[in-house]
Amino acid sequence: MEIILGLALLLYSPFFFDWMERKTRARFQMRFGPKYNTAFGFFQPVFDFLKLMGKRRNTPSNVEPYFELLPFVRLCVLLSAFTVWFIPFSYSVFVVVAVLMVDSMVVWMMGYAQRNRYALVGSARNLLQKISFEIPLFILLITPGITDGDFNIIHNFNPLLVFGFFIVVFVALAELELIPFDAPHAGEEIVAGWATEYSGPLLAFTNYTSNLKFAFLSLAIATLYFGPGFFWLKAVVVGFVLALLNAAFARYRITDVVSVCWRVFVPLSILQMVIVWMS
Fold first, then answer.
1. Which of 39-53, 75-89, 187-201 has the weakest average pLDDT?
2. pTM assigned to the model
């Protein structure tokens, strides 16, 4: 029964985190956000998904043969990564890091497969941003394990990691391509970036997978920095912080994104690791 409940929460989590992000951003900007289709618009993301599933799929004639397969490859990669919570084991944090790296490569391939200029620019921006920010993200994800030599995804709370938490949430914004690090799909510049040519059911699963990554990274940060127990509740708190930061900032240019990564986040992440190691 617990496994069934966990799977149900897992499959619905992208819709919930999408609703929370939209609702938080709306209230921050003095709007209502989703308010129809059940109380507080709670199931609005589900209706949006079903609406896209019923839309016509328009596929350009010059796309690569694997164009339609990639959204499902990305979905399977992220779903498989949740096994580190169902079956915890030592060094599971490296599975999280590997999944994030594979996800970045699949997104780049999604942009390349479209043979569209906007998609190619978006996928190139995505790869440049991820290569930069996955260095401090990797450091911050393995830092909790330095204290006891156990690199399990689930760790006890350590007060020394509070500073690291404030760093990792900003780095997570870049990994999730949320404002201020949303240059890879900046709508005013490159239409929808690496997802430009995806429509109908393919766009529905693309959006669903992006929100699944939001839930995945929130859960990873919560269990690494705030200890075991009440996993999803802590993940919601982390997701709420990410949604607040997403609403509070304006977009950086891609050149500024890379610069702030190497000048600010890489040194701060190394500093956090050194503090934990010396303690």
1. 187-201
2. 0.88
Predicted pLDDT at 273: 87
Number of domains in the chain: 1
What domain range includes position 219?
2-278
Contact between 29 and 250 under an 8 Å Cβ cutoff? The reply is: no
Among residues 144, 129, 140, which one has the least CA distance to residue 262? Answer: 129
What residues contact residue 104 under an 8 Å CB cut-off, 6+ apart?
Answer: 126, 127, 130, 131, 134
Provide the Cα torsion 187, 191, 193, 197; round to 10°: 140
pLDDT computed for residue 2 by the predictor: 67
Q: What is the mean pLDDT of residues 236-250?
A: 87
DSSP string, the chain: -HHHHHHHHHHHHHHHHHHHHHHHHHHHTT---S-SSSGGGTTHHHHHHHHHHTSPP---TTS-TTTTTHHHHHHHHHHHHTHHHHS--TTHHHHHHHHHHHHHHHHHHHHHHTT-HHHHHHHHHHHHHHHHHHHHHHHHHHHHHHTTS---S-----GGGHHHHHHHHHHHHHHTT-TTS-GGG-HHHHTTGGGTT--HHHHHHHHHHHHHHHHHHHHHHHHHHS-SS-HHHHHHHHHHHHHHHHHH--PPPHHHHHHHIIIIIHHHHHHHHHHHHH-
Q: Is the four-CA dihedral 86, 88, 93, 95 of positive or negative sign? A: negative
